[in-house]
Design a protein that fits this description.
mainly alpha; about 0% strand
């Protein structure tokens, strides 16, 4: 009945003039007779009455006056001395949602085609603005991080379930508020649990978006995918920043490598390039931390070797399960192997150099070369063999350029013996598996 009634009504100048006069008198009487939260309740009550009594007064001008009372009620709410009190905010949000869905279900084609859309956006802004103002007043700055993220999740899910695009868009205000608050408090030394939980809720919002995309086929995918990607990137960057801020320096490389391995394994399992992008992102930051530690005076630890092992294991997983994905190609595999072997070589060299003389450093290089060559034969991966050959050549160059001139006679002899044994072993392997190597090369 209401939908049909709205289509039949139109604005009239004389009725509009009297409604404007009545609106002014109503506002003046309310301001004179009430104060504080009572004023807010009365203004919102009048706005609801204006919409609910449409079948009786049949005046679209009264509908617009009701919207004016709602807006002024919001402005009065902002002036309350205790915005942390949840009751006025709850009433304000309830009234805004009522008006939003009232206009959402009542297209006013006779008065103006654009009017319902404008008013839907207006009441969405009033509802979200009320929630945001209440949260700012009710919580401490560090607690606001998870609160904003959680409210954004609720508003986003509500907007999707009610098919209210304006509410979905307004939910991003909470994402922006989370980021702004994070920037403002990140240097204050707040406990890591607050920003971590906030970024976790943003990631959860991305998961809800993915779930609802399959449950709501009538909602365009363009609403979901960009929103989901932005949330995932924000959560990932924020979590990476927290790792650098709160994890001990000796553990950062392993933590980032483990996270990259997790996303890499997920990409290989789901055959999805999105987790692979995140794995590459985290691997780059892990490499940055590795170089940062390498140029520091700290001695390498087992965590560094574990991180290198995860990188090399990831390459093998990708080789077996991700060959059909265009982003993961043979050059990417070769770069992963080269980075892993290079990192192992640097770690071993730095560890030996910190506690022994040059002879042991050359021997350690030769051992790393032998390990790399052995992995190349065992895994049938030529990149390992090429990396081993390069390190072996560097070992030979070091013997000729450094060890021969600086080491004592006994250590020079031992250097040549160790290197000779490794060269003979490698030559035997190449001769033994010559036919197979021609195929692998």
């Amino acid at each position: 009945h209401q939908r049909g009634l709205l289509k039949e009504l139109s604005f009239q100048k004389r009725a509009g003039a009297f409604v404007i006069l009545a609106t002014i008198l109503g506002l003046a009487a309310t301001a004179h007779a009430t104060e504080g939260t009572s004023t807010v309740y009365v203004l919102l009550g009048i706005s609801l009455a204006g919409a609910l009594t449409l079948p009786w007064h049949r005046l679209p001008e009264v509908l617009l006056a009701a919207q004016a009372f709602a807006v002024i009620g919001f402005l009065k709410y902002l002036g309350l001395p205790n915005l942390a009190d949840p009751l006025p905010g709850l009433v304000m949000v309830g009234a805004s949602l009522f008006h939003l869905h009232w206009w959402q279900r009542s297209p006013c084609t006779a008065t103006a085609q654009i009017l319902p859309s404008v008013l839907i956006w207006l009441h969405s802004a009033l509802a979200v603005g009320t929630i945001l103002v209440w949260a700012l007043a009710a919580f401490a700055p560090n607690v606001e991080l998870p609160v904003f993220a959680g409210l954004g999740l609720l508003v986003f899910a509500y907007g999707l379930l009610t098919r209210t695009g304006s509410f979905v868009a307004m939910s991003q205000i909470f994402v922006a508020a989370t980021l702004l608050r994070f920037v403002s408090v990140m240097m204050d030394g707040i406990p890591w649990i607050f920003p971590a939980s906030a970024f976790g809720l943003l990631a959860l919002q991305s998961g809800v978006s993915h779930l609802l995309q399959h449950r709501l086929p009538d909602v365009p995918a363009t609403i979901f995918i960009p929103h989901r990607r932005v949330l995932e990137v924000i959560a990932l960057v924020g979590a990476t920043f927290l790792v650098f801020q709160n994890v001990p320096a000796s553990w950062i490389f392993l933590v980032l490598s483990s996270a990259a391995f997790f996303f890499f394994f997920t990409a290989a399992t789901l055959k999805n390039s999105v987790p692979l992008n995140y794995a590459i992102f985290l691997a780059l930051f892990a490499a940055f931390q590795f170089l940062r530690q390498f140029f520091s005076p700290a001695i390498p630890s087992w965590q560094d070797f574990a991180g290198i092992a995860l990188l090399l294991i990831s390459q093998q997983i990708g080789r077996r399960r991700m060959q059909e994905m265009t982003l993961y190609s043979r050059p990417v595999e070769h770069v992963s192997i080269a980075a892993g072997i290079l990192g192992l070589w640097l770690l071993v060299g730095e560890m030996v150099a910190a506690s022994a003389q040059g002879f042991f450093l050359t021997v350690s290089w030769a051992v790393v070369a032998a390990i790399s060559m052995t992995l190349g034969f065992a895994l049938k991966e030529r990149a390992y063999r090429w990396a081993g050959l390069v390190i072996l050549c560097l070992s030979i160059v070091r013997i000729m350029v450094v060890d021969v001139w600086q080491l004592e006679t006994i250590y020079r002899i031992l250097s040549f013996l160790v290197l000779g044994v490794i060269l003979v072993a490698i030559g035997f392997l190449y001769n033994r598996f010559a036919d197979a190597l021609r195929k692998w090369m």
